From TrEMBL:
Domain Glycosyltransferase 2-like: 66-227
Domain of life: Bacteria
Swiss-Prot/TrEMBL keywords: Glycosyltransferase, Transferase
KW DNA repair (keyword) present: no
InterPro entries documented for this protein: Glyco_trans_2-like, Glycosyltransferase_2, Nucleotide-diphossugar_trans
Name of the protein in question: Undecaprenyl-phosphate mannosyltransferase
Length: 330
């Protein structure tokens, strides 16, 4: 609403507009804005209601089997068994790799399932038998534990729980939390340095974040062993590196837990020369992993046992040949 008033001075008079808003009109406009203001207020008002807690994971059930690749472990077997949580483990399978001591007799006396190799098949060859028998015996959760008393077997239950809760498919026991702890526990300095260098390299190459790629304490869900063609792996120590590269290739979920370790003369270990060979072979595994991923040179160790591996292998080889030569393979 517009009014006018007159300002008079000695020379002239000027009409000055004066705005006098209609109060009823303004109230109507504010009422139209009320829904919008309410929405804005609700959007920016902190929520006081506590969001619902995520559902607790429900542990799955199934048979838990501990497998022990053994070679001359008579002096440490009983101590290893004494620390195992009996309420977690349903069966213990010991595969003896041609021991010359009383390993087999002690294992039988303790009620273990014993498989004996007439000839030494190597560390990887021993594990192959361990896993084959575990699957045949109906294992749903498989823990590989050395019977040399180096790894603290009291944490077996924790590893199995991560599998049962479906948090991980593969659980590694990490020996290294800090440099001080590892060296104080008896790990040789050269072995610590080699472990750190290889583990960092493998984490980068495989896209993982594990604390220790070279631990002898491992736990798997059944489907891992049913998928990975571990039978095609080496019979030597590099079996472990191949297995983890395969686990990454098949996209299994990997995690680790700290496991206390002990270093003493009876604990199994490889010497410096074999350690160097193992490191070189591990780097070769990483090269094969990327050759497979980039389809440059497919490898049979990366073909699943759950598929027609022969057909799949032919297709992969043909694709690699075409990529390399630019012509189809007849």
């Amino acid at each position: 609403m517009l009014d006018s008033s007159t300002s008079t001075d000695s020379n002239q008079s000027v009409a000055v507009p004066v705005f006098a808003p209609d109060s009823a009109e303004m109230m109507a406009q504010f009422q139209n804005l009320e829904p919008l203001l309410a929405e804005i207020e609700q959007a920016y008002t902190p929520q006081t209601d506590t969001p619902p807690a995520p559902a607790e994971p429900v542990p799955t059930t199934g048979k838990t089997v501990v497998v022990m690749p053994a070679y001359n472990a008579a002096s440490t077997l009983l101590k290893t068994l004494a620390d195992l949580p009996q309420n977690v483990v349903d069966e213990i399978i010991l595969v003896d790799d041609g021991s010359t001591d009383a390993t087999v007799d002690l294992a039988l006396r303790e009620g273990l399932t014993v498989i004996r190799h007439k000839e030494n098949r190597g560390y990887g060859g021993n594990q192959k038998t361990c896993y084959q028998y575990a699957l045949e015996h109906g294992a749903e959760y498989i823990v590989m534990l050395h019977p040399d008393y180096q790894y603290d077997s009291r944490v077996v239950g924790l590893a199995v729980e991560l599998l049962k809760l479906d948090i991980c498919d593969v659980v590694m026991g990490s020996r290294i939390r800090t440099r001080k702890e590892a060296l104080a526990g008896g790990m040789p300095a050269w072995k610590y340095l080699a472990n750190r260098m290889l583990t960092i390299t493998e984490n980068i190459a495989l896209g993982q974040n594990l604390g220790d790629f070279h631990s002898g304490f491992r736990a798997y869900r059944r489907e891992v062993l049913e998928t990975i063609p571990f039978e095609r792996n080496s019979n030597d120590f590099v079996f472990d590196s191949q297995f983890l590269a395969q686990a990454v290739h098949f996209q299994f979920r990997m995690g680790d837990i700290p496991v206390p370790v002990r270093y003493f003369p009876e604990a199994s270990s490889i010497n410096f020369r074999r350690c160097v060979k193992y490191g070189i072979c591990t780097l070769a595994v990483l090269a094969r992993f990327w050759a497979q991923r980039l389809r440059i040179r497919p490898s049979k160790i990366f073909f699943s046992k759950r598929t027609d591996s022969d057909t799949e292998n032919r297709e992969e080889l043909q694709q690699a040949s075409q990529k390399k030569t630019g012509t189809p393979e007849n």
